[in-house]
Design a protein that fits this description.
heterotrimer, A alpha+beta, B alpha/beta, C alpha/beta, A: alpha+beta, OB fold (Dihydrolipoamide Acetyltransferase, E2P), Dihydrolipoamide Transferase, Chloramphenicol Acetyltransferase, 3 domains, 6-stranded mixed sheet, 4-stranded antiparallel sheet, 10 helices, C: alpha/beta, Rossmann fold, 5-stranded parallel sheet, two-stranded antiparallel sheet
Chain lengths: ~450, ~325, ~375
């Protein structure tokens, strides 16, 4: 199994580094602690040690070239092993259900002139202008012009084509959300509100390298996810802080409260408690409940808690519970469940999809104890919730077994420094360990 | 309306201007006695004795003397015999005639017309067949005109003589003899130098040319019409400063541009048109710009070789069909 | 023909002479280039007895020469100080030619000047303030700052422009003469100034031939200053006296001492008279010497500065004038000094004026081209 060698982040302000020198070459065997390369920033040059044993099986960033911190610059592995296909960029470890294979939507009517997927689309300037003005992707347009070039009449034909018929609501929503209606929905069918919502899916896993011999045209939804992911990755210099807490108190709370709510048919989940606790804690951390653009930091007045909802067809949506800090656990439970249900069914309204100020994503079901979620732009932080694991811990000098959970807070370091993030995380954990503090 | 040739039209223009302005005079080789080697000055010397001067074979004097005469207050028309000979007096053209008005801060007017018969008349070979108008598009301060038909020949020449800026008037040797209907004097519409004319409206492709190249432009448009393709044809008439607006507006309508001229394609007037459209209206183009001009070789003598030098309407037709 | 007496016969030329290599004025200059020696030229035409009787005219010519000298010295200083852009060529030592020729012309007569044209411009009567402003590139200059030193012109006084192209003026002057005589039917005369370097341009032949053939009222004034840029004329020119070529165009010529304003003036008067009478062109060869380098800043590696200095000391047209007028009791030295001082002051004021003017506004950029 290949191991990534990442560009280290050697200081708060370091965003990228330049490889000064590789001390090893492909094929060399390295031991943990060996100096394998030197890296320079505008401030300094450091020698970097290997963090694992292995054979250098690939060097991604050449001497003299730069790479962002935490991006893959080389691969270690077993002798003879190949680096992963397309393994140039680090695959961000982000919440994504190990979903069933994505159903690829039928591709737009085949162009008379064959064009390999991803190939540069030859088009006349006028055709490009028309396509752009009308909001069509050139790649979807069949070329009938000279030498296989997309000409204006091809764009016109595409515009007149059946698959771009759109419901009025979908059209309005697409315009507001900046979704290209021609890239979504099933070919030949009317684009509906649900298609638009699907296309606005929140951050989810980036595309894993496929078998290098097979090129798959991804769904429009996947393209939208990819775009969002890429945007987030390039926008926030992020750090993930992980902290364990003892879930005993939370477990007890849930048990007690669910018993009380049983007649009402309401069931509070750990997610709901997380939402409430985090919302309450955010009141004291306006920087974290904010957004940042053009060097302006916005402190949001409302705390609207987003919850990542996996869709059966793959991908994610993130509806949010408005003013979550002001709602009771029961209210949160009812509202969040309805949102999750709608999300899975692709029936979420615009209101539920927009206005979030913070996001929680829970992969505990899959036994994860650590991961690094990616921020849902333009928010400034996201909280990853891991599995609850019975763990031997020391309490009052005795080894006891407690249900321990890890929380992974990914924060945008442009705004949120390590101390602030850690303090916030600590506060969240304390409240979860002593839910009574919610009343404080 | 009456039918007159291009050469007769220029003669009419000369006569009318010489009657109107006593300061207009003509000089060049073989004009007064011979009437011009293409007959384009026939009888002018008799009609205006002393105002049509046969010069020695001295091109630098013909142009330089013309500039001096203009500086002194006359309104000279000078003739270059063959456009090919302008090289002899290039300094007079581009350092004196072109610059005097500007570099003297507007003190000088240069109401000078340099007439330059150009083009392939058949067998003229390398030194008597060239179309050299493109050289002068690179020289600020000169107006360059190249009419394509008798009516324009007359109106453009009159406008050139009346202009206080120097004008080079290219007149094609082949179209000298060709006749067309021309309005009576009272129905004439003065030509404004710098304006192109849409001679045929269309929607599918814009064909731009000037001078003898208009034969190809119109010929191609006729061929396309048989296929139901409507070409818009523009006669530039003035090559410098040229009418960008008319061409660009047409391209915005038709989205295709085809350019043709008899002169060498490389660095030709049409290269400027193509570049300008690419700069200013690229996003309106729905096909590559097509450009037809002479190959990059001196004009050969043998008829079989000379034919290879020529452009035919079918060339344009085939090219346009390919990108439609 | 009456004018025949005023011309000199061509001298015999050839490689027979072993006489020292002397420029026509001043000592030999060894440039290390072997070239055929020729006999020094007798420059004074005995017929050139200038009218040393008209005090007003003499004073005017003296004032013009002093203005040119002061103007050129001022320009030289300011150019070397970096205040004047471009290239500048000075007329110091040659003042008598432009002055003598232009004194014989009317305002309506036309002159074609050269890249060394400040002297012609002043002598033809241009305003020195506007001239200086032009040389500084200011909007109030004669050409609105668009021409500069090499293209200075004042059409209001018949100065049709300096010309940046050596030998560019012949055809223009001849064409102007043609227009005057044959088209506009007046008696105005054209003059073209040119150096010995320019005399080797083919344009001379074309213009001189037409002028001679059609008897046009144009005067070819050769400022024979011995240097074509950095090349001595004898290394490139087949004749000793450039004006020998006039005979090929059936054109009378006179050779005068170009450093004697009275001689130049007298020859000009005769040439102008011939021209106005319809007798055609005249070639005046004015022997002088280029005192300054080809351009301001020319390191003059091709000659010795002390020799040049001595030539000016021995042949300064201004000093020569003073000696002649004082000797002839036409003017006193005091009167001369007063005029000279005033000329220097006038030029100083011109410089002040030029400095006070603005550079042209960018709105001027596209004006004066494609006007109508």
């Amino acid at each position: 199994m290949a191991i990534e060698v990442l560009m280290p982040k050697l200081g708060l302000t370091m965003e990228e580094g330049t490889i000064e020198e590789w001390k090893v070459k492909v094929g060399d065997t390295v031991k943990k602690g060996d100096i394998i390369f030197s890296v320079s920033t505008d401030k300094m040059t450091n020698e970097i040690e290997a963090e694992d044993d292995g054979v250098v099986i690939g060097i991604v960033i050449a001497e003299g070239d730069s790479a962002p911190c935490k991006s893959v610059i080389a691969w270690l592995g077993a002798a003879g092993e190949q680096p992963p296909a397309g393994g140039v960029a680090a695959a961000p470890a982000v919440a994504a259900p190990a979903a069933a294979p994505v159903a690829v939507a039928p591709v737009a009517a085949a162009a008379p002139v064959a064009r390999p997927a991803g190939a540069y689309v030859l088009a006349t300037p006028y055709a490009k202008k028309l396509a752009k003005d009308k909001g069509y992707a050139l790649a979807a347009i069949a070329a009938t012009g000279y030498d296989g070039v997309v000409v204006a009449k091809d764009v016109d034909a595409h515009v007149a084509g059946p698959h771009v018929k759109t419901s009025p609501v979908a059209a309005k929503m697409a315009a507001e959300l900046g979704v290209d209606v021609n890239t979504i929905g099933a070919d030949g069918q009317r684009v509906m509100k649900a298609d638009v919502l699907a296309a606005t899916a929140a951050p989810a896993a980036a595309v894993a390298p496929a078998d290098e011999d097979e090129v798959i045209k991804v769904t429009p939804m996947r393209r939208a996810i990819a775009k969002n992911m890429e945007n987030s990755w390039h926008t926030s210099p992020r750090v993930t802080f992980t902290r364990p807490f003892d879930a005993t108190g939370m477990k007890d709370l849930r048990k007690a409260i669910n018993k009380a709510l049983e007649p009402k048919g309401i069931k509070v989940s750990y997610n709901h408690i997380m939402m409430k606790v985090v919302s309450l804690c955010l009141r004291d951390y306006p920087d974290i409940n904010g957004s940042f653009k053009d060097n302006l930091l916005t402190h949001h007045k409302h705390i609207n808690m987003g919850l990542a909802v996996a869709q059966p067809s793959g991908g994610l949506v993130v509806p949010n519970v408005k003013d979550c800090d002001k709602k009771s656990l029961a209210e949160i439970a009812v509202e969040a469940d309805q949102l999750a249900k709608d999300g899975k069914a692709g029936k979420l309204g615009m209101d539920a999809m927009t206005g979030g100020t913070f996001t929680i994503t829970n992969l505990g079901n899959y036994g994860l104890t650590n991961f690094s979620p990616i921020i849902n732009q333009p928010e400034l932080a996201i909280l990853g919730v891991c599995a609850m694991v019975d763990t031997p811990v020391v309490r009052d000098g005795q080894i006891v077994v407690r249900p321990m959970m890890n929380l992974c807070l990914t924060a945008d370091h442009r705004v949120i420094d390590g101390v602030q993030a850690s303090e916030f995380l600590q506060k969240v954990c304390e409240m979860l360990e002593n839910p009574v503090l919610m009343l404080a | 309306m009456r039918k007159i040739s291009f050469a007769e039209a220029t003669l009419e223009a000369m006569e009318e201007e010489m009657e109107k302005y006593p300061e207009v005079f003509v000089m060049g080789e073989d004009l007064a006695r011979q009437g011009g080697i293409f007959g384009q000055f026939k009888g002018l010397g008799h009609k205006f004795p002393g105002r049509v001067m046969d010069t020695p074979i001295s091109e630098t004097f013909i142009v330089g003397g013309g500039v001096g005469a203009a500086l002194a207050g006359a309104r000279p028309v000078v003739d270059m015999h063959f456009a090919d000979f302008i090289g002899v007096c290039m300094d007079e053209v581009f350092n004196q005639m072109a610059k005097a008005r500007y570099m003297f801060g507007g003190q000088a007017k240069i109401p000078l017309v340099l007439r330059a018969p150009d083009g392939m008349a058949g067998g003229g070979a390398a030194q008597h067949s060239q179309s050299v108008e493109s050289w002068f598009l690179h020289i600020p301060g000169i107006k360059v005109v190249a009419p394509s038909n008798p009516y324009d020949a007359k109106m453009v020449l009159k406008a050139a003589i009346e202009s206080d800026d120097p004008v080079i008037y290219f007149e094609n040797k082949v179209i000298y003899k060709e006749s067309a209907m021309v309005p009576e004097k009272e129905d004439e519409v003065p030509y404004e130098i710098g304006k192109a004319r849409v001679v045929r409206e269309g929607t599918d492709v814009t064909i731009v040319s000037y001078s003898v190249g208009m034969k190809n432009a119109n010929g191609a448009a006729d061929l396309l019409a048989k296929d139901g393709i409507n070409a818009e044809v523009i006669d530039l008439i003035t090559l410098s400063p040229w009418d960008k607006e008319t061409v660009i507006n047409s391209v915005k309508k038709t989205h295709r541009l085809c350019l043709v001229a008899e002169s060498v394609k490389q660095g030709g007037a049409m290269a400027e048109v193509a570049a300008t459209v690419a700069e200013e209206a690229l996003e309106y183009l729905d096909a590559p710009i097509l450009r037809y001009g002479a190959p990059f070789v001196p004009i050969p003598f043998a008829p079989t070789l000379e034919k290879l030098y020529r452009i035919f309407p079918e060339d344009l037709y085939n090219g346009i069909k390919k990108v439609l | 023909m009456a004018t025949a007496k005023k011309t000199v016969a061509p001298k015999q030329m050839g490689p027979q002479s072993n006489e020292p290599l002397l420029p026509h004025i001043g000592p030999a200059v060894d440039v290390g280039v072997p070239y055929p020696g020729v006999a020094p030229v007798q420059i004074t035409n005995p017929a050139n007895t200038a009218p040393l009787t008209d005090k007003k005219l003499a004073a005017k010519m003296y004032e013009t020469m002093c203005t040119i000298r002061a103007f050129e010295e001022s320009v030289k200083k300011d150019f070397l100080n970096g205040e004047i852009p471009g290239f500048t060529h000075l007329y110091i030592g040659e003042e008598a030619i432009a002055t003598g020729i232009c004194a014989a012309l009317k305002d309506t007569d036309l002159i074609e000047s050269t890249h060394r044209g400040h002297g012609h411009c002043i002598a033809k009567g241009a305003d020195v303030n506007s001239m200086m402003a032009e040389i500084f590139g200011k909007k109030d200059g004669l050409c609105k700052g668009k021409g500069g030193s090499m293209h200075i012109a004042d059409f209001s006084v018949g100065m049709l422009g300096a010309n940046g192209v050596v030998g560019g003026g012949y055809n223009l002057a001849t064409g102007a003469a043609l227009a005057q005589k044959l088209v506009l039917k007046n008696d105005h005369v054209s003059v073209v100034f040119f150096g010995d370097g320019a005399s080797n341009r083919g344009t001379f032949h074309e213009a001189a031939n037409v002028a001679g053939a059609w008897k046009l009222p144009v005067i070819f004034v050769n400022e024979m200053n011995s240097w074509a840029s950095t090349t001595p004329y004898r290394t490139t020119t087949a004749v000793e006296d450039i004006s020998d070529r006039a005979f090929g165009y059936n054109m009378p010529r006179e050779i005068v001492n170009g450093n004697d304003v009275f001689e130049v003036y007298a020859a000009a008067v005769r040439a102008v008279e011939r021209a106005r009478k319809g007798e055609g062109p005249t070639f005046i060869e004015a022997k002088t010497y280029r005192i300054e380098g080809h351009f301001v800043g020319d390191p003059e590696m091709y000659r010795k500065k002390e020799e040049t200095k001595k030539i000016l000391e021995d042949n300064d047209p201004i000093t020569r004038f003073e000696e002649r007028v004082v000797k002839a009791k036409l003017m006193t030295q005091k009167e001369c000094d007063k005029i000279r001082t005033a000329a220097i002051e006038k030029v100083a004021k011109a410089k002040e004026y030029a400095m006070s003017c603005e550079y042209p506004d960018p709105s001027e950029f596209y004006k004066d081209v494609y006007v109508d």
